[in-house]
Each structure stands twice: as C-alpha cells, then as structure tokens.
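Handout, page 2. Input:
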Amino acid sequence: MSQPVVVVDAFTAQPFAGNPAAVCILSEDKPERWMQQVAREMNLSETAFLVRRGEAWALRWFTPAVEVDLCGHATLASAHVLWETGLLGAGETARFRTKSGILLASRKEDWIELDFPALASEYADAHPDLAEALGTTPKEVSKSRFDLLVEVDSEAAVRKLAPNLALLATIPVRGIIVTAAATTPGFDFVSRFFAPNAGVPEDPVTGSAHCALGPYWGARLDKLDFLAYQASARGGVVRVTVNGDRVLLGGQAVTVLRGDLDV
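Output:
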C-alpha cells in the first residue's frame, strides 16, 4: 500500500521560500526505523508523522539523521495539511500529542498560530571553538534546553555568517542559534540556525529556536510581541508573542508537492 506524503513550505506565503517539511498522515503506527528511513529519503530538515488519537493527533518529527523533541515548522506544516485535506474543519484547533507535551495550532485568517512551550536560556561560557567555528566573535552566549543561543553585534554579522560546520559539529548541542537586533525596518530581531549534529547543516526557518529567542529578546527589548526574520538563503517570517511559560508562533504555509511513497 502506498503512503501519501505532502511537502509544505512553512513560515512563508510564497513557494520555494521558508522551510520545507514533508508530512505523512498515517492510518496506523509505523516502526521508528521506517519513519527514520522515510525522513532520510525525503532529505528535508524535518519529516512529520501523524496518527489520529481520538480528538488529537500523535505527532513525531525526524530529521534525515535523528528524531527531535520539538519542531515548529513541521508542526505548522502538519496543521496546514489537516485543514487543507478536510481532516480538520476550518474553525477547529489542531491538537498534537508530542514529546514536548500538548501543542496547539489555530487559524488566524491567512496565518497559523502555534502554542509552544517557552524555552528559557541561561548564561553559558563560550565553547573554546565557538568563535572559530562561527567565524565571528560572540557578544553573549546562553544555553536553552536544546541549543546554544549566540548574540552577535549586528544583523549584517548574522547575514554574512559562513560557519565551519565540521568544527561546529564538535560542540555538544542540538544546534546553534545566532541572533542580533534587526536593522531591517519592521523587524525586531534576526537569526540563523545551524544543526550539523542533527543532520541539518542550516535550517531555513526554525520555529523551536524562536521559543528561546522570544524570551531572550523580551528581556532585552522589554516587549512581548515581535516580528522576526530568519535570514537563511530561503528566508522566513515568524510572529512571536511571549505569553508566560508559552510562546505563540505565527506563520504562513503553502503546499508545493503531493505524492505517494510506494512502500
């Protein structure tokens, strides 16, 4: 029996921008090894697998190399597919059971809003190879549950980064978020995200990173609502609202491919 798969560009309203994720809605549970093989075959930063569980959907995320505990863009893509296929009504909230607890997605006109856990970050000493690996001197380094968060001097410094990914992979974290206050009009901060340890050299737009970026910039800019830009080659826009121990992430999505896995 073939398995339908949909590819969605998330955190963008334009095809071939934002962050692509593959979404597989399964009729029954599949072995973890099979899901990892499919994710490797898709060769996108994330592939999402969903199985209905009553009023909710069990949701798991795999990079080409590993399963991850939290992923924003593939959750946004999953909600988009559920509404697009009619598995959820237009006014219904998508409810996902994940390794990071219950996650919600709701439609806000042309946008999708994700309700995710806020990720606090604490000051951390810079790894001795961090500056060399990034090719720039960190202004401040902190550590969240999953990632290093590195602030640099300027938006220009974020945009021109060309890190040594092999050296970056020696730092024992899921990924490295690099960020700066924005100088581009309309945006509050910019970022990029590198995760060679997870099989993702650079992630185009990273929802889970903004779970840490929101509280981080909230403390520095003394505000709760942000418009953020992830300055990868594809680029993507994320609305961020810090709401206590939760972060609301807003983004758009567009379907670019529908097909079947003949396995």
